[in-house]
């Protein structure tokens, strides 16, 4: 009779442990998804702002058409991306194109003095910082989830319930290079 009680207690404790680990995995998975949506929110703000910035710059830089077209092309690539990999690639292209766009301001003193441009540039810089922080939080959440999925004994439960590792947000090859602007 004593064995049955011990066996029942061990079984109940095991069930509670499985439930606890499962719930923590779900919590981490949802946190990763939330952090990715936070990145999307900031990217959406940036994409909404970019056309206004480009239009403001166009008035001063009529012959810098290629740079402006690259910004719009990169923006449109992100909007039409079908998956996370394509979105990350397009985001890197847009970041690179925007940095080149800002470099143009050095050649146009009137543009630097334009209040609309300054406001847009300031707002875009703020959004860029928020995107950086959102990416950091996303990667932190991915790290926690991936660790939980890989570490013993939670890896057994993660495997039972088909939890999958997530990809980290990584800078593209273009983003790792120095920006080169030629006029």
Describe the structure.
- The protein is mainly alpha-helical.
- Helix content is 79%, strand content 0%.
- The protein is built from seven helices and no strands.
- Helix 1 (2-58) runs antiparallel to helix 2 (65-79) and helix 2 runs antiparallel to helix 3.
- The longest helix is centred in the first third of the chain and has 57 residues, at 2-58.
- It is rod-shaped, with a radius of gyration of 24 Å.
- The relative contact order is 0.14.
- The model is unreliable at 179-183 (pLDDT under 50).
Q: Give the low-pLDDT segments.
A: 179-183
N-to-C span: 88 Å
Radius of gyration: 24 Å
Query: What portion of residues belong to β-strands?
Result: under 5%
Helical percentage: over 70%
Tell me, briefly, the overall form. Answer: rod-shaped
In DSSP terms (H or I, runs of 4 or more residues), the helix count works out at: 7
List the secondary-structure elements in sequence, H or E. HHHHHHH
Number of strands: 0
Computed structural class? mainly alpha
Largest sheet: none
List keywords for this structure.
183 residues; mainly alpha; rod-shaped; disordered C terminus
Task: Annotate the secondary structure layout.
Blueprint: H1 2-58, H2 65-79, H3 84-104, H4 109-113, H5 115-150, H6 154-160, H7 173-176
A few lines on this structure:
By secondary structure, the protein is mainly alpha-helical. 79% of the residues lie in helices and 0% in strands.
């Amino acid at each position: 009779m004593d064995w049955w009680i011990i066996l029942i207690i061990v079984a109940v404790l095991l069930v509670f442990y499985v439930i606890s680990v499962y719930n923590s995995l779900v919590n981490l998975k949802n946190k990763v998804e939330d952090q990715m949506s936070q990145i999307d929110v900031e990217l959406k703000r940036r994409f909404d702002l970019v056309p206004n910035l480009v239009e403001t710059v166009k008035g001063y830089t009529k012959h810098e058409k290629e740079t402006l077209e690259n910004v719009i092309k990169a923006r449109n690539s992100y909007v039409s991306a079908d998956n996370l990999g394509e979105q990350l690639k397009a985001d890197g292209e847009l970041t690179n194109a925007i940095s080149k766009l800002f470099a143009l301001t050095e050649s146009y003193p009137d543009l630097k003095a334009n209040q609309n441009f300054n406001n847009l540039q300031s707002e875009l810089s703020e959004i860029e910082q928020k995107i950086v922080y959102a990416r950091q939080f996303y990667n932190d959440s991915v790290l926690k989830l991936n660790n939980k999925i890989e570490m013993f004994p939670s890896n057994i439960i993660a495997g039972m319930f088909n939890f999958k590792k997530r990809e980290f947000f990584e800078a593209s090859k273009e983003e790792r290079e120095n920006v080169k602007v030629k006029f």
